[in-house]
Amino acid sequence: MKIETKVEKFTTPLYLESGRILEPYELKYETYGELNEDKSNVIVVCHALTGSHHAAGTYEGDRKAGWWDDLIGDHKTIDTTKYFVICVNVIGSCFGSTGPTSKIYPTEKEYRLKFPVITISDMVRAQIALFDRLGIHRAEAVIGGSMGGMQALCYAIEYPRFAKRHIILASTYATQPWTIAFNKVAREAIIRDPHFQNGEYDKEKIAEKGLSGLSVGRMSGHISYLSPDSMITKFGRDYDPRDGLYDLFGKFQVEKYLDYNSNNFSKWFDPLSYLYITKAINIFDASRNYDSLEDSLSRIKSKITLISFKSDLLFLPREMKHIEETMKKIKKGELVSYFEVDSDYGHDAFLVEIPKFEKIIMRALEE
Predict the structure, then answer these.
(1) Which of 58, 87, 281, 287 has fewest C-beta within 10 Å?
(2) Which H or E run contains 190?
């Protein structure tokens, strides 16, 4: 599989929903496979909160493959011998696109908390600007899970003629209070950490030691990504045999798991990016700029495939089901297909239980 990573620089302004302007800005993206002569074999993949443009494959020195490597590649479900797949790092992220630790042109000073609040629609608008520059005006499909699914829904509503199909996994039409509450815990943990220093933390120290506030916040998020059943299966009530049960700071295996993952995470993900992206997720509401959800979904002209997961506690299956029901209500039922995958893994099933839904995606792409 041919993999290329590139950065595109824009000097034209990006007008944001907030009324502010991002100028200039950069987008980092990765492509897989070959673009055909008439640029008609494109599939856009959108990443989630802590994802990046590196969706598949490995580079020399990589410890692990891209986050959807089981799905994307030669002769895989999203077949890169047939399709040209492109994944763009969203604005606000910390993996190469313009974000809060980028420099304010023409100075050497970083944005930090002066970076503008961004929305899912802003992320998509920036990607469309990239595709226009690349001469890509039509895609076979836009696919994404979680926050990536929000982007895919935005594409369907705001750019209804861009793609033939939109495949949305483990997502929602509007972020609900339950998810906003989990994000609140994470956000407050970051902001209240004295080492956060009102956004003026030392990036090198964070990369070396992490930020305890981000670590604690990640624990909250990670719990919401799993499910009670998956935790029972994975950890049970197992206790670290090196700790005494009556040692106040002794740990169950689930506690050690959360410690290990969150501490590592806080060294490689930027705290400000976490704040800005979770804010974008919280703001997300497909009906916000329209009279109603019916009004916004009425703009959809392409096929929509919705895939929810039975044990998802972050974005409940009924939220995806509501999109289908609303599409039917406005007489667009022929455009939508809904599938609920029987999974005990929770929200992260869209990343790890690919055999359970890959045939749904394959059939959608073949239609």
Answers:
(1) 58
(2) helix 177-192
Helix (H) or strand (E) holding 304: strand 303-309
DSSP state of 110: B
User: Distance between CA 202 and CA 254 in Å, rounded?
Assistant: 31
* 301 and 272 within one domain: no
**Confidence label for 292 from pLDDT (cuts 50, 70 and 90):** very high
Letter string b/e over residues 99-111, b meaning 16 or more CB atoms within 10 A of that residue's CB: bbbbeeeeeeebb
Whether residue 340 sits in one domain with residue 298: yes
* 146: annotated active-site residue: yes
50 and 127 share one domain: yes
Residue 326's CATH number: 3.40.50.1820
Q: Catalytic pick from 193, 285, 312, 348? A: 312
Both tokens assigned to 1:
């599989």
- What is the amino acid identity at position 365? L
Closest Cα to residue 130, out of 77, 89, 76? 89
Q: Check 146, 273, 302, 311 and give the catalytic one.
A: 146
Residues 6+ apart with CB under 8 A from 275: 100, 187, 190, 191
171 within 8 A of 146, measured Cβ to Cβ: yes
Catalytic residue list contains 348: no
Q: Kindly give the interhelix angle for 253-268 and 228-235, rounded to the nearest 10 degrees.
A: 110
53, 54, 166, 347: the catalytic one is 347
Over range 315-332, report the average pLDDT.
98
**Which residue has tokens 């974000």?**
99
Looking at this protein, which amino acid is placed at residue 198? N
pLDDT in tens, 126-184: 999 999 999 999 999 999 999 999 999 999 999 999 999 999 999 999 999 999 999 99
DSSP for 285-299 reads BTTTTSS-HHHHHTT
User: In which residue are the tokens 């410890």 written?
Assistant: 63
Which residue type is seen at 87? C
Residue with token string 């608008």: 125
53 flagged as catalytic: no
| Structural domains in the chain (count) | 2
User: What is the tens place of the pLDDT at every residue in 192-251?
Assistant: 999 999 999 999 999 999 999 999 999 999 999 999 999 999 999 999 988 888 999 999
| Residue ending a domain, choose from 279, 309, 342 | 279
